[in-house]
């Protein structure tokens, strides 16, 4: 497995990370045994970075990772690095109730995550959404104290905009920004990628398959369950879905021409962006089954030359996506979109 260094202060991680969110209900039901087998298969293939959030299934995802690591061979368990998001407030019905980045909340979230993960430290810790009521210096400062105390190794950001990134980096070393980046989501190329490049901050890219929309496995006939994010995502709805699937058809022609799958082409495109970014870009693939994971890993073997990249650009031009990447209300919580 190729590796990359996130940020100027590390850590070294596998070129692909595994995002575990979909194993805890965000995309409808997931099979627990298959989820754990997928984490084991990822570690076995050399993936070292496991991404989670304490609010994915209200702790379910961290407990799942705990079980997967406990039941993995010691050598694989020891190579695993945990990247944990905190701050999102939930309610008993599963609703979303804003974000809490107060320093006293950081310590509280951290205490519970350490317990659920069954570990004495978290490798990368970040607030999922910038809390507009708390200066980022205070939130990052609280994580920096946890680094001093040994409970956290590195500090990351999530969906932060350029000004917040600069202020955070002036407070403490930031190793990565986790943000949506895919053929359908390229807004970060204008300002956020250059800022991160200048400051030596890596990118852990999520939604590289646009939540399955550009995986080649989504179709008009596939219905998302009511509790699946995709049931209320603007990109998966009505005419937007037709327009986005037409982009996938165009991308499939490029993929077919190379003898690889649509998902592999989409992931390889994100990997290829490393060539023009000084700090590492590491796609987090959201596989929750071993067959999907195996397909994603195949992207590491795909080389895209200038002609391939031009053909992909023609198939899916920047800004071609129909619909916003989150529903309207959730868009307002994205510091990166302000
Ligand atoms: N910081 C943030 O705000 C934020 C937000 C969202 C996610 N994340 C993190 O990023 C990770 C990845 O995000 P994501 O799950 O939205 O990304 P994604 O990789 O774009 O989408 C994953 C979904 O795509 C489908 N898929 C189809 N073919 C696949 C393949 N070959 N490999 C993997 N998935 C395939 C799967 O759905 P089916 O299984 O239904 O086919 C899977 O659940 C999450 O797990 C989470 O850790 C962070």
Automatic annotation (TrEMBL):
Domain NADP-dependent oxidoreductase as annotated: residue spans: 16-315
Any single GO CC term annotated in Swiss-Prot or TrEMBL for this entry: cytoplasm
Keywords of this entry: Oxidoreductase
Positions in coiled-coil regions: none
Record Pfam families: Aldo_ket_red (PF00248)
PANTHER family (alphabetical): AFLATOXIN B1 ALDEHYDE REDUCTASE, ALDO-KETO REDUCTASE YAKC [NADP(+)]
Protein name: Oxidoreductase
């Amino acid at each position: 497995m190729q590796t990359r260094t996130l940020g100027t202060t590390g850590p070294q991680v596998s070129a692909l990370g595994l995002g575990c969110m979909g194993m805890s209900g965000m995309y409808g039901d997931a099979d627990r045994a298959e989820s754990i087998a997928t984490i084991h298969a990822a570690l076995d293939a050399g993936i070292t970075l496991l991404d989670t959030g304490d609010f994915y299934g209200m702790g379910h995802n961290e407990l799942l990772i705990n079980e997967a690591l406990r039941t993995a061979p010691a050598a694989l368990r020891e190579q695993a690095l945990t990247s944990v998001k905190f701050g999102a407030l939930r309610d008993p019905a599963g609703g979303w109730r804003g974000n809490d980045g107060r320093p006293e909340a950081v310590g509280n979230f951290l205490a519970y995550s350490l317990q659920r993960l069954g570990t004495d430290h978290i490798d990368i810790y970040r607030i999922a959404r910038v809390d507009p009521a708390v200066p980022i210096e205070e939130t990052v400062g609280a994580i920096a104290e946890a680094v001093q105390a040994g409970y956290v190794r590195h500090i990351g950001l999530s969906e932060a905009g350029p000004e917040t990134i600069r202020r955070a980096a002036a407070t403490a070393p930031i190793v990565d920004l986790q943000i949506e980046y895919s053929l359908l989501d390229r807004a970060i190329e204008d300002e956020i990628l250059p800022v991160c490049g200048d400051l030596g901050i890596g990118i852990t890219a999520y939604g590289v398959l646009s939540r399955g929309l550009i995986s080649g496995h989504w179709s008009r006939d596939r219905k998302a369950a009511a509790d699946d994010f995709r049931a209320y995502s603007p990109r998966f709805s009505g005419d937007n879905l037709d327009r986005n699937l037409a982009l996938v058809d165009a991308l499939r022609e490029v993929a077919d021409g190379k003898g690889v799958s649509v998902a592999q082409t989409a992931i390889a495109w994100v990997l290829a962006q490393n060539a023009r970014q000084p700090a590492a870009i590491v796609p987090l693939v959201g596989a929750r089954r071993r067959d999907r994971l195996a397909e994603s890993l195949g992207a590491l073997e795909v080389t895209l030359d200038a002609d391939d990249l031009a053909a992909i650009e023609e198939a899916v031009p920047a800004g071609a996506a129909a619909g916003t990447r989150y529903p309207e209300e959730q868009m307002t919580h994205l510091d990166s979109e302000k």
